[in-house]
Amino acid sequence: QVQLVESGGGLVQAGGSLRLSCAASGSIFSISTMAWYRQAPGKQRELVAQITRTGNSYYTDSVKGRFTISRDNAKNTVFLQMNTLKPEDTGVYYCYCDPTVLSVKYWGQGTQVTVSS
């Protein structure tokens, strides 16, 4: 069983920055692909950024150049540095863990990010 605990959300003005953290319990973090999803009000949950166990990263087009995903395998933690935030970045951000070798996937409880204009 893996538990994911997100932190770092909050209210920020457009152009500001936030850093999200997701701490994972269990021993599979280092072999897992980790990701951040977000869900805006009235919209479907979407993939924002992903990082494999080897450090390869992917970003959705709307955040390229502004967001950076990183991981610290020694601390079982994945981060999302969000710069130059825009009102359209507002939503609940969820941490996601895909152990790849297992069929089960894990979600965090979500953290709210609100960007005011």
Keywords:
single chain; seven-stranded mixed beta sheet; 117 residues; four-stranded antiparallel beta sheet; mainly beta
The number of strands is 11
* Global Rg: 13 Å
Strand content: over 45%
**Order of helices and strands, N to C?**
EEEEEEEEEEE
SSE-based structural type: mainly beta
* Number of helical elements: 0
Share of helix, binned:
under 10%
Q: What is the assembly state of the chains in this entry?
A: single chain
Give the distance, in angstroms, between the N- and C-terminal Cα atoms: 40 Å
Overall 3D geometry?
globular
What's the average pLDDT?
Answer: 95
Poorly predicted parts: none
- Major sheet details: 7 strands, mixed
Question: How would you summarize the topology of this molecule?
Answer:
Blueprint: E1 4-7, E2 10-13, E3 18-24, E4 33-39, E5 46-51, E6 57-59, E7 67-72, E8 77-82, E9 91-98, E10 106-107, E11 111-116
Parallel strand pairs: 2-11
Antiparallel strand pairs: 1-3, 3-8, 4-5, 4-9, 5-6, 7-8, 9-10, 9-11
Task: Give a description of the structure.
This protein is mostly beta strands. The protein has strands at residues 4-7, 10-13, 18-24, 33-39, 46-51, 57-59, 67-72, 77-82, 91-98, 106-107, 111-116. It is globular.
